[in-house]
Amino acid sequence: QVDLVESGGGLVPTGGSLRLSCAASGSIHKIDSMGWYRQIPGKPRELVARDSSYTGIYYADSVKGRFTISRDNAKNTVYLQMNSLRPEDTAAYYCKVTGWIIVGENRQRNFESWGQGTLVTVSS
Question: Can you give the pLDDT at residue 1?
């Protein structure tokens, strides 16, 4: 029902920067939260940053001071600005969006959608 398209991943040297984008489309009534997770094969997926209407902004300790999450509500898009990148930041990054979709003239239904993932590789 809600499609997420991610972009911005790539190869960057240690200390470099990348900006990830995630655009949501569909019959969206309201977005409650947009967040970024990352995953290394064989390891659990971990929350990196999240902007929630209910709980505010969260950052994992490992990225505090280096990453910044932001939203463009008019475009239903969330960004993750990643600075001072380290090799340990190498992972597949996934966008997650929650909110409400329009299912009728005066009805809504909650949703949770994941992006396809974008690979970030930080070389040493």
Answer: 81
Q: Which of 4, 14, 74 is nearest to 36 (CA)?
A: 4
Q: What are the beta bridge partners of residue 112?
A: 98
> Token digits for 19?
């900006």
Average pLDDT, integer, range 111-116: 97
Bridge partners of 40?
none
Place of tokens 């409650």: 32
Are the CB atoms for 59 and 48 separated by under 8 Å? Answer: yes
**Res 22: pLDDT:** 98
Residue 105 pLDDT > 90, yes or no? Answer: no
Q: Phi/psi at 73 (nearest 5 deg)?
A: -65, -30
For 27, the 3-state DSSP assignment is: coil
Question: Which of 7 and 104 is assigned the larger pLDDT?
Answer: 7
Query: Rounded to 5 degrees, what are φ and ψ at 61?
Result: -55, -35
Cβ-based neighbour number of residue 61 at 10 Å = 6
